[in-house]
TrEMBL record:
Keywords noted in UniProt: Cell shape, Cell wall biogenesis/degradation, Glutamine amidotransferase, Hydrolase, Ligase, Peptidoglycan synthesis
Organism: Frankia nepalensis
PANTHER family: DETHIOBIOTIN SYNTHETASE, LIPID II ISOGLUTAMINYL SYNTHASE (GLUTAMINE-HYDROLYZING) SUBUNIT GATD
Reactions mediated catalytically: L-glutamine + H2O = L-glutamate + NH4(+); beta-D-GlcNAc-(1->4)-Mur2Ac(oyl-L-Ala-gamma-D-Glu-L-Lys-D-Ala-D-Ala)-di-trans,octa-cis-undecaprenyl diphosphate + L-glutamine + ATP + H2O = beta-D-GlcNAc-(1->4)-Mur2Ac(oyl-L-Ala-D-isoglutaminyl-L-Lys-D-Ala-D-Ala)-di-trans,octa-cis-undecaprenyl diphosphate + L-glutamate + ADP + phosphate + H(+)
Protein name: Lipid II isoglutaminyl synthase (glutamine-hydrolyzing) subunit GatD
Gene3D superfamilies: 3.40.50.880
Gene: gatD
Length: 319
């Protein structure tokens, strides 16, 4: 992007144009991201005992005052980032950072367990993250994951999964790549194809751009914002359980006549939304965290994300 000439006003959030989709970030106080929210932001009564966490960063100052939280499945919440070099093309690894930080802000110990391709996937993690990727890496990822059923076993034991785009396709029943149909993990009852149109119809174009969802009411989430970039179309199999992640307000999502994106079944969430989706939608991060922790104290903001969401909603004319 061109740097502003001295004396020229810096671009402001309102300069965000759509189309063309060019994002100018709002100007924000940089230090906030490194500071915990003020204790006044917490909705729980102050009489609760301090958090169990003893992390050197969190032990400083205000974190001592944070309320206790329900017992985690284990003392440290383990967030598995699956094959980041194959399923990390679109910055979806940021989802791990968001989950970790939102736990730490609440005084809960958390660690990211990065699982490189070729390594066995541990079955003892609390949340499994699969990101987006191109067709070939996605096929390799599916092959690796099919070698053991760690994620399926972890889910049976109460773990949560967030699978984005290629990850969503991989945890479904089947997906296309390189002119073939590949088996997925079958964690979600969906199938992906390049098209569900009659074989003689031209292939639909790749969809790239902003996406906004009205989440399924059962999830009790605010508007979900993101970015999509995929060639595949995904539909539920007959008799599939779960609810769509949301109804598409802007964008394509699953690309089926129902106008939905993703599928949520139990503690497994598949979606086409990049962003990273949890960075733009902290409420979705907290939904995943409550799946493994039970109810958590409210944690508003951070204000940078509120500002970002407001700017994006304005730009998409859905404010
Ligand atoms: N962004 C992605 O993860 C893309 C997934 C898949 N390769 C597709 O094009 O549909």
């Amino acid at each position: 992007m061109r740097r502003p000439v001295h004396g020229e006003p810096e671009p402001q959030p309102d300069a965000y144009q759509h189309p063309p989709q060019r994002y100018v970030p709002p100007r924000l106080p940089a230090q906030h991201l490194f500071e915990p929210p003020a204790p006044s932001a917490w909705s729980e009564p102050e009489s609760r005992p301090p958090a169990r966490r003893s992390d050197s960063f969190l032990d400083q100052g205000r974190y001592q005052e944070l309320p206790a939280v329900p017992a985690a499945r284990e003392s440290t919440t383990r967030i598995a980032l699956i094959y980041p070099e194959l399923l990390g093309t679109y910055g979806d690894g940021g989802n791990a950072l968001v989950l970790t930080q939102r736990l730490r802000w609440r005084g809960i110990a958390a660690e990211v367990v990065s699982v490189p391709a070729g390594e066995p996937v541990p079955a003892g993690c609390d949340i499994y993250l699969l990101g987006g990727g191109e067709d070939e890496p996605q096929t390799l990822a599916a092959e690796g994951l099919r070698r053991n059923n760690s994620i399926e076993r972890a889910v049976a034991g109460g773990a949560a999964v967030l699978a984005v785009c290629a990850g969503y396709q991989v945890i479904g029943q089947s997906f296309p790549a390189g002119g073939k149909i590949h088996d997925g993990l079958g964690l979600l009852g969906v199938e992906t194809r390049r098209s569900f149109d009659p074989p003689d119809a031209p292939l639909p174009p790749r969809v790239v751009g902003d996406i906004a969802l009205d989440p399924d009411p059962s999830l009790r989430l605010p508007l979900v914002l993101g970015y999509e970039n995929h060639g595949g179309r995904t539909r539920p199999l007959p008799g599939a359980r779960g609810v769509p992640f949301g109804k598409v307000r802007i964008g394509l999502g699953n690309g089926i006549p129902e106008g939905t994106d993703g599928l949520v079944e139990g503690t497994v969430l598949g979606t086409y939304l990049h962003g990273p989706v949890l960075a733009q939608n902290p409420a979705v991060a907290d939904l995943l965290l409550t799946w493994v922790h039970g109810p958590l104290p409210a944690l508003p903001g951070p204000p940078e994300v509120d500002a970002l969401r407001a700017a994006r909603a304005r730009a998409l004319q859905i404010a």
